[in-house]
Amino acid sequence: MLKDPYVFDFITAKQGLKEHDIEEQMVSNVTKLLLELGTGFAFMGRQYHLTVGQEDFYIDLLFYNVKLRSYVVIELKNEKFKPEFTGQLSFYVAAVDGELANEGDNPTIGLLLCKEKDNVVAEYSLRDIAAPIGVSEYRLGDVLPEQYLEYLPTPEDLQARI
């Protein structure tokens, strides 16, 4: 069963946070990321390089799940889900199956993490895709607006009072 949404509360949402920044924070907090994904995940790489034909491609995050005996491709989009995202993810899933998977591995799983999605649009986009691909939203930890920060104690203030 696909989790929806994934909650990455170890990443604080700031105005203007880019996809690259979210990805970087996921990798720097890889233990917390693995716990949120579930059991059996091994981190294979960020911006994982694949050469297909004569072209270079970079998968946002690549994992291997030892329990499922399957690669897991995660494509991160810091925007609302668009149907064309499934084409890119489907390509990555097929490329990993063709270039990395070994005999005995199960089919690669693709997970598209978007800032938000319309469930009906996502369902129609995935309806005729045979590969195991899912679309889920993600949530980040919230940062208080600047005007509130001056009224609240800092973590250091709280620690000093304890």
Shape: globular
Q: What is the residue-mean pLDDT, rounded to a whole number? A: 78
Overall helicity: 25-40%
Distance between the termini: 43 Å
Largest sheet report: 6 strands, mixed
Give a verbal description of the structure.
33% of the residues lie in helices and 37% in strands. By secondary structure, it is an alpha/beta fold. Strand 4 (70-80), helix 3 (84-99) and strand 5 form a beta-alpha-beta unit. The longest helix is centred in the middle third of the chain and has 16 residues, at 84-99. It is globular, with a radius of gyration of 18 Å.
What characteristics describe this protein?
6 strands; 162 residues; alpha/beta; globular; single chain
Would you summarize the structure shown here?
With 162 residues, the protein is an alpha/beta fold. Helix content is 33%, strand content 37%. It has helices spanning 19-28, 30-37, 84-99, 119-126, 146-149, 155-161; strands at 6-13, 41-52, 55-65, 70-80, 109-116, 133-142.
Q: What secondary-structure arrangement, pairings included, does this model have?
A:
Blueprint: E1 6-13, H1 19-28, H2 30-37, E2 41-52, E3 55-65, E4 70-80, H3 84-99, E5 109-116, H4 119-126, E6 133-142, H5 146-149, H6 155-161
Parallel strand pairs: 1-6, 4-5, 5-6
Antiparallel strand pairs: 2-3, 3-4
